[in-house]
Amino acid sequence: MRWQTARLVDRRVETPTAQTLVLEVPGWPGHLPGQHVDIRLTAPDGYQAARSYSLAGPADGDRIEVTVQRVPEGEVSSFLVEGYGEGDPIEVRGPIGGWFVWRAQQTEPVLLVAGGSGVVPLMAMIRARRAAGNRAPFRLIYSVRSPTDVFYAQELRRRVRDDAGLDVAYVYTREAPEGWRGEPHRLGLADVNSHGWPPALEPLVYVCGPTGFVETVSDLLVGLGHPARRVRTERFGPTG
Question: Where in the numbering of this chain does the FAD-binding FR-type domain appear (predicted)?
Fold first, then answer.
């Protein structure tokens, strides 16, 4: 893979600390939902920094989308959210990854389990399903700190209303919205058992989030009887 020049053509605010960047990459080869890209910045003195970001949407010609959450003291994320202007160049390399992907030809039920910003590649799968007219039933369990931290909040509400076969359940770990049943808590066995697919339906499962979250959820799923080979994971952690 080679580095390609990309330019910002649009941005959308998702949360107080996260934005979706729409980049134009001439000659982009296309990608599958679940894949990611490397983004590289180069300072005037030649210093370079690169980070990996999941693609947030299905293939769309020469345009790609990444959702970036600003990390405290994060040199790349801070620049992309606060200092990157429309038309400015950056370098991208990809698409990367071939295991944690969903293809429009798949017909089995799908369970998506997201921790925080781990929802980004899973949202790409939800969007790709709709774009392809695929009718495979999807369920998303989204663990997030508070309502203000939910990525794609309005779009998810709209899709649950309009997309037959898509269900979304939230687990709030710090602060829950008014009227939400239960107390804030970490995602546990009862949540996966209540909102996921039973193993007998042989769903394909995608889990994405921080390393500890992914390991915990994977263990819960296998403990409930889901074959490990059908549980696909993508994890992330601090850089450096």
Answer: 1-102
User: Is the model's pTM score more than 0.90?
Assistant: yes
Per-residue pLDDT tens digits for 170-191: 999 999 999 888 899 999 999 9
- Topology given in CATH for the domain delimited by 4-96: Elongation Factor Tu (Ef-tu); domain 3 (2.40.30)
pLDDT (tens digit per residue) in 58-68: 999 999 999 99
Q: Which amino acid is at 115?
A: G
Q: b/e string for 63-99 if b means 16 or more Cβ within 10 A?
A: ebbbbbbbbeebebbebbbeebeeeeebbbbbbebee
Tokens 């808590």 found at: 185
**Mean pLDDT of the chain, nearest integer:** 94
Instruction: Report the distance separating Cα 176 and Cα 182, nearest Å.
Output: 9
**φ/ψ (deg, to 5) at 7:** -130, 145
DSSP 146: S
DSSP state of 55: B
**Domain 110-236 maps to which CATH number in 2.60.120.10, 1.10.10.10, 3.40.50.80, 3.40.50.1820?**
3.40.50.80
Q: Are 103 and 35 within 8 A, CB to CB? A: no
Q: For 71-80, 122-131, 186-195, 230-239, which range has the lowest pLDDT when averaged over its residues?
A: 230-239
Distance of CA 108 to the CA centre of its chain: 20
104/125 Cα distance (integer angstroms): 9
Longest dimension (CA), the chain: 58
